[in-house]
Amino acid sequence: MTIIVPVILSGGSGTRLWPVSTAEAPKQFQPLTGGDSMFRQTVERASDRTRFAAPLVVCGPGHVAHVEVDLAAARIDDARIIVEPAARNTAPAIALAALAARSDDPDAMILVMPADHVMTDVPTFRKAVEAARPAVEGGALATFGIAPSHPETGYGYIAAGDPVIGAPGVRTVRRFVEKPPRERAEAMLDEGSHYWNAGIFLMRADRFLAELERQQPAMASACTAAMDGARSDGAKVHPHADAFLASPSNSVDYAVMEGASHVVVVPVDPGWSDVGGWAALHELGDKDMAGNVRIGEIIALDAADNYLRAGDGKRIAVVGVSDLIVVAHGDDILVIPRERAQEVKAIVEALAKRPPG
């Protein structure tokens, strides 16, 4: 049985989780949903060496130190870190990892996982991975569709088709749907057989690279040249910078998945969240009788349905408020209505425009 190579994509800055998540220490390296970082949780999702090979991590130069610390904390000493010279979105990042995996094993199968997602039911996810294996061995590119709990407008959707013969629990993909307006999202939930697109994939490395070359020849050529000219530094692999910078920037959905000839989906409900903002952490967190999530030293009087997070020895006190996000971290304090939590990104953009000093 082919051992699956975990590919962990660790880009992104998590701007909607400012002030805890920053460009220098983004959300995947923060213990936002427990004692361990989301990166470490992702690594440990595929830590069973009877099923999974040593992981391949793809990240930028500024995050290598965080990756090394978390890998050491997870006692993983055989991972390789592919250091992207610059961000080029998910399709080139996956291409670098697929090329590395195929170089090790022409029949390699890769499990692509973003490093900044949460799953509360990992055994269910692992069962879904095993369910996808027969279709992937037959040449399919498999994605995992999250059972939707509400008509979310911030995610893309996957429309599932007929069951795949010989792969119980796996269905064909009829189409990918971009982030919909609310009316369309509600209609898809009413229709059924529509799932959130989590951006998690299982596929043979050679099949992915063949699709990339067919659909995105310039990207395939640039990534191949970058890995052909790569240099190694211990566990770190540095693709040739000039070659990689010649690659177009595109997401794997647009570049490959939407135009691929054989794509399947495994519907699954593993307690998944992409932790896209503070409101998501309120949903995930343990709540008191009034619906408040309290982290750190908190005083909450006549207060309900708030997310209250005090770090760095700070204390937060609230009285008579509801549906707020209040976060104290370092020298920064964030106060925002929970329903407007996605607008935190605007604060980060405003700070970036401020003159230094």
Concise overview:
With 357 residues, this protein is an alpha/beta fold. The protein has helices spanning 38-45, 64-73, 90-104, 122-137, 182-191, 205-215, 217-228, 241-245, 252-255, 278-284, 344-353, and strands at 4-9, 56-59, 80-83, 109-114, 118-119, 141-146, 157-163, 171-177, 194-204, 231-233, 236-238, 263-268, 272-273, 293-295, 297-301, 307-310, 315-319, 324-329, 332-337. Strands 6-9-7-8-12 form a 5-stranded mixed barrel.
Question: Could you explain the architecture of this structure?
Answer:
- The chain is of the alpha/beta class and 357 residues long.
- The chain is built from 11 helices and 19 strands.
- The strands form 4 sheets. Strands 6-9-7-8-12 form a 5-stranded mixed beta barrel.
- The radius of gyration is 21 Å and the shape is globular.
- The mean pLDDT is 95.
Secondary structure topology:
Blueprint: E1 4-9, H1 38-45, E2 56-59, H2 64-73, E3 80-83, H3 90-104, E4 109-114, E5 118-119, H4 122-137, E6 141-146, E7 157-163, E8 171-177, H5 182-191, E9 194-204, H6 205-215, H7 217-228, E10 231-233, E11 236-238, H8 241-245, H9 252-255, E12 263-268, E13 272-273, H10 278-284, E14 293-295, E15 297-301, E16 307-310, E17 315-319, E18 324-329, E19 332-337, H11 344-353
Parallel strand pairs: 1-2, 1-4, 2-3, 3-11, 6-12, 14-16, 15-17, 16-18
Antiparallel strand pairs: 4-9, 5-13, 6-9, 7-8, 7-9, 8-12, 10-11, 18-19
Helix pairs in contact: 3-6, 3-7, 6-7
